[in-house]
Amino acid sequence: MAYKITDECISCGTCVEECPVNAISEGDDKYVIDANLCTDCGACAEVCPTEAIVPGN
C-alpha cells in the first residue's frame, strides 16, 4: 500500500530527498507520490513537518 500526500502539504520538499526510490515529485499544488514506485517504507512520512504523508487506502 503506497503512501499518499494530503492537502496539508506545504510543498517544502523535505520528503523528496528522503525517498529511496524517487517516487515523490512536485505536483500542481502539492507534492505527489507515484503509487507504482512507492515501496511503503515510510521514510517520507517520518520527516514531513506537517504530517501530510499518510498510508494510502
Please describe the topology of this protein:
Elements: E1 3-5, H1 14-18, E2 24-26, E3 31-33, H2 43-47, E4 53-55
Considering the chains and any ligands shown, give keywords for the structure:
57 residues, Alpha-Beta Plaits
Describe this entry's structure for a reader.
The longest helix is centred in the N-terminal third of the chain and has 5 residues, at 14-18. Helix content is 18%, strand content 21%. It has one domain: Alpha-Beta Plaits, CATH 3.30.70.20. A two-stranded antiparallel ribbon has the order 1-4. The protein is an alpha+beta fold. It is globular.
Sheet of most strands: 2 strands, antiparallel
Quickly count the helices: 2
Instruction: Strand order, main sheet: write it out.
Output: 1-4
Class inferred from helices and paired strands: alpha+beta
Q: Please, what is the average pLDDT?
A: 96
Q: Tell me the number of structural domains.
A: 1
Bulk shape = globular
**N- to C-terminal distance:** 7 Å
Whole-angstrom Rg? 10 Å
CATH topological fold name: Alpha-Beta Plaits
CATH architecture: 2-Layer Sandwich
**How many extended strands?**
4
**Low-pLDDT segments:** none
**Helix and strand sequence:** EHEEHE
% residues in beta strands:
15-25%
Give a brief rundown of this model.
The chain is 18% helix and 21% strand. With 57 residues, the protein is α+β, with helices and mostly antiparallel strands. The longest helix is centred in the first third of the chain and has 5 residues, at 14-18.
